[in-house]
Specification:
379 residues; alpha+beta; conserved putative lor/sdh protein from methanococcus maripaludis s2 fold; Elongation Factor Tu (Ef-tu), domain 3; 5 domains; four-stranded antiparallel sheet; 37% strand; rod-shaped; Multidrug efflux pump subunit AcrA (Membrane-fusion protein); efflux transmembrane transporter activity; MdtA-like_BSH
């Protein structure tokens, strides 16, 4: 009897527990799911305002001196010590002697030839007095002004045919030009600075035996430099001489002002580029310095310039409409290393100023507001 009572109590307890558990399940089934809050990114924006955008071409190269002279010897001789050392970095003023070779032996042969010319003219003076008294005086004056220690003076002008035959027949004209040729060669034993500048290379030293055709060094004018740059052929018709150019050094710590001095008239068939030469002056510049040049090639009307990373591969950019991202097609006109010039972007369009990671059309965003509650405009 007790056993039946215990089983009856357990059965009632199980039924009550089942009812409670069923009600619990029913209540949980109708409970609303938790709402996951949406993350809205804050983005930097710009308002489009189309304008004329200058096309800036970036190019780079090394500086070379505009005035440069490679020094070669045309004669042979011993390099003599001068007032200044012939060393790299040595400065010379215009007209100063760069190199002087020992010309004592050659100088003696020149003086001998000049003496022969003087003697030849002196030998015909008696015949001139008798046969050509009207031209005697000009030849006598020539002899009086003849100085062996100075450059041979030009022969008197021969006025008549008979005088010409007489003078030429005595070998005076040929002797005269032989002397002038020797004198001209004598000047090659001394190399003079054609302009004020500095030696950048010295290949010989004092006491060296210099041979004919030997390179002696290089001499430059350090006040004016030029840089050769290669520009795309598409700018061949708009790149002009005299165009202002801004140059920067490799560290981008200094800028220099230059101008386009020359533009090559032909296009390189291999690279399809045109060569332009930029002239620049500054006391801080040195030959061989690496500079980057920005050339103003042209202007594009009704366009804007934005960060190159904002342009999608499909030639579209993100815009903001009603706090949602959207895309619009654009027309790229010019690409630089960091930016791109676009057309077909309506004025007043709100676009991104910086790329947004994971952006997609329809994404909720919030525009960052400046202190004056207005967004910047991009041109």
């Amino acid at each position: 009897m007790l056993r039946k009572i215990i089983l009856s109590v357990l059965g009632v307890a199980l039924i009550i527990g089942a009812i409670i558990f069923a009600n619990y399940l029913i209540d949980n089934k109708n409970k609303p799911k938790p709402v996951i809050p949406k993350v809205v990114k804050t983005v930097l924006v710009d308002t489009v305002k189309n304008s004329s955008i200058p096309i800036v071409i970036s190019a780079n190269g090394n500086l070379t001196a505009l005035q440069r002279v490679e020094l070669y010897s045309e004669v042979q001789g011993l390099f003599q010590t001068g007032s200044k050392l012939f060393k790299s970095g040595q400065k010379f003023n215009k007209g100063e002697t760069l190199i002087r070779l020992d010309a004592s032996e050659y100088y003696a042969s020149v003086q001998s030839a000049k003496s022969d010319l003087y003697n030849s003219i002196a030998a015909i003076m008696p015949d001139l007095r008798l046969d050509f008294p009207d031209v005697f005086q000009k030849w006598q004056t020539y002899l009086n002004n003849f100085d062996l220690n100075k450059t041979t003076p030009t022969l008197p002008e021969i006025s008549g045919e008979k005088e010409n035959y007489f003078i030429t027949g005595r070998g005076i004209v040929s002797t005269y030009y032989n002397v002038r040729n020797l004198e001209q060669r004598l000047t090659k034993y001394r190399i003079i600075a054609p302009f004020s500048g500095i030696l950048t290379e010295a290949l010989v030293t004092e006491g060296t035996l210099v041979r004919n055709g030997q390179k002696l060094g290089e001499f430059i004018n350090p006040s004016v430099y030029e840089m050769e740059v290669a520009v795309s052929k598409s700018f061949a018709d708009i790149l002009k001489e005299g165009e202002a150019v801004t140059l920067t050094n490799l560290d981008r710590t200094k800028t220099y002002k230059g101008k386009v001095s020359r533009v090559n008239g032909s296009i390189d068939a291999t690279t399809q580029t045109i060569t332009a030469y930029i002239e620049v002056k500054h006391e801080d510049l040195k030959e061989g310095m690496y500079l980057e040049a920005n050339l103003n090639a042209d202007k594009v009307d009704n366009a804007i310039e934005i960060d190159r990373n904002l342009l999608l591969d499909t030639e579209e950019i993100y815009v903001i409409k009603d706090s949602l991202l959207d895309v619009i097609p654009v027309k790229p006109v010019h690409f630089s290393n960091t930016s791109v010039v676009l057309r077909a972007v309506p004025d007043g369009t709100i676009i991104l100023r910086k790329p947004v990671p994971g952006a997609y059309a329809g994404m909720h965003v919030k525009s960052a507001v400046n202190s004056d509650n207005t967004s910047d405009s991009v041109q």
